[in-house]
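Can't paste images in this forum, so I'm doing it all in text. The chain is below; anyone willing to post the predicted structure tokens underneath?
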Amino acid sequence: MYQVTRLPNGLTVATAELPHMASVSLGIWVGVGSRFEARELNGVCHFIEHMLFKGTRRRTPKEISESVEGVGGYLNAFTSEEFTCFHARACADRFDDLLDVLTDMFLCSTFSPDDIRKERDVIKEEVAMYLDQPQHHVQELLNATLWPDQPLGRPITGTNRSLDGLRREQLVGFLKENYVTGSTVIAAAGKLSHRQVVRKVQRACRRMRQAPRPGFLPVRIEQSGVQVRIATRRTEQTQIAIGVRTCSRHDRRRHAVRLLNAVLGENMSSRLFQIIREDRGLAYSIYSTPSFFHETGDLVISVGLDANNVQKTLKLIQRELKRLRDEPPGKAELQRARDYVIGQNDLGLESTDNQMNWIGENVLCYGRVIRPGEAKRSLQRVTANEVRSAARDFFRPDRLNLALVSPAKSAAGLDRILRM
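Text version of the structure:
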């Protein structure tokens, strides 16, 4: 089902042939994101993402959207720490239209000064919107605590100050330098032929600049104890985010971390949801999420609650972290977590969009497509003792960080609660 071809110019084409599907999803994946940015260029990848929708030599912004939406399709993009992706989906017989629009945006966007000026204001409104959402604000505060004074700790959108400093020559220069064949994967999934996709991509992308994928600086870790940061705001709730630095996507312990997270807080059956919401009624929502980067990773616990319940809740969370360090999960609990993670993977891959995301991210991260069966076997091999071992490796004071957005004026003493 999965095929990968590297073209002579260095561009990679990856496909998932799904002949039973009616649609096709196409993405241009660039292995460059916000952690590739210098401090003064913070937000440049996200800015470029916006600008590629603002017009080409052949299409106005309206014509870009109409070219896809006018045939019943969907067009969007996203920027993350290590990737940028421009993607579209439509009926399978519209593949040529999708490829023409996406490559036109990617290779021929004009970056007009007037559009840059207007889009800078649009992105500032996006930044303001996120900061008005305490759940989002606390995540950015946590990132700055986990990765202080380095790209992973900066907001993907940039700040008002960094956005004001970005000029056309910097946007165009960053695009030309980094969005090159060696850092780009064209991923497609659905009712298609790999051979035909390769032929069409080769013709459409023959003018793409040839160069290797750029690098980035690895993270610096200088933490010795629990770090706490608070932003005082007039809010009804206190938003809490606890971040634990874990391992990279290349570390074999990542499979144990996936299952540890499912046991801890990924769903309504998890320990934290049952204890914090169901048993104690302290919060409406509590959940945990793992993220893996090239050489590091994190596991984040998020909860919103009344300010009077912060210490009580942190003590309960600390107790569960310590319990995972001290005792391996039971056989039945681990099997439920394993079945959940595997089941979620299988259900997600039923759509052409998620198949396209799977192959695009896999090829950029690992240089190949990891087949779902291989991922399933890796999870099936994880033992209860390996889950406990991962908890012992990562649930330590020099890896624990706490961020709060709260009406409280001080977070004094909260670090002591989380000491393991």
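Residues 113-131 form the longest helix (19 residues). The CA atoms of residues 161 and 184 lie 30 Å apart.
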